[in-house]
């Protein structure tokens, strides 16, 4: 089996090109700071699912509005990609909001909270409830 599948290579290239195109070429004031977090291409290269995140904006209304702008720009983006990448057929672009980054940040903050509360509890056990060292009795 080959090391890298063609769909993976096409997806990686699409991700790089779309990141630049969205940032520099899509001139819509409603569009926030969009990051292309991943692209999955179908086996027949007919469709590309583009996963995006929004920097500092995670309200459902803003997400919906940004996805609408990207969907409207899909034809333009496809034509630009056709000029930049040598493909017989440029996949149809479907945009999705990538919740994994937000979920990861939420989990990371929960882990940090748990570690700090555990550390505080451990410090209380070591020094006793009144703050004095229990081990120093004399």
Characteristics of this structure?
alpha+beta, three-stranded mixed β-sheet, 138 residues
Notes on the protein architecture:
The chain has helices at 6-24, 60-84, 100-127, and strands at 34-41, 47-54, 92-97. It has a 3-stranded mixed sheet with strand order 1-2-3. Helix content is 52%, strand content 16%. The chain contains 3 helices and 3 strands. It has 138 residues and is of the alpha+beta class. 15% of the residues are buried. β2, α2 (60-84) and β3 form a beta-alpha-beta unit.
Query: Strand fraction band?
Result: 15-25%
Work out the radius of gyration.
24 Å
Succession of helices and strands: HEEHEH
| Strand runs, count | 3
Low-confidence stretches: none
The secondary-structure class comes to alpha+beta
| Count of helical stretches | 3
Helix content: 40-55%
Strand order of the biggest β-sheet: 1-2-3
Largest sheet: 3 strands, mixed
**Separation of the first and last Cα atoms:** 73 Å
Shape: elongated
- Average pLDDT number: 86
């Amino acid at each position: 089996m080959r090391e890298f599948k063609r769909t993976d290579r096409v997806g990686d290239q699409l991700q790089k090109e779309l990141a630049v195109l969205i940032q520099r070429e899509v001139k819509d004031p409603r569009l926030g700071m969009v990051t292309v977090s991943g692209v999955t291409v179908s086996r027949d290269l007919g469709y590309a699912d583009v996963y995006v995140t929004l920097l500092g904006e995670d309200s459902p209304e803003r997400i919906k509005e940004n996805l609408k702008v990207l969907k409207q720009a899909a034809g333009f983006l496809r034509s630009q990609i056709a000029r930049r990448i040598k493909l017989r057929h440029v996949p149809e672009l479907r945009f999705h909001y990538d919740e994994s980054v937000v979920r990861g940040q939420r989990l990371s903050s929960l882990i940090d909270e748990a570690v700090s509360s555990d550390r505080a509890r451990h410090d209380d056990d070591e020094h006793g409830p009144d703050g004095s060292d229990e081990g120093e009795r004399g």
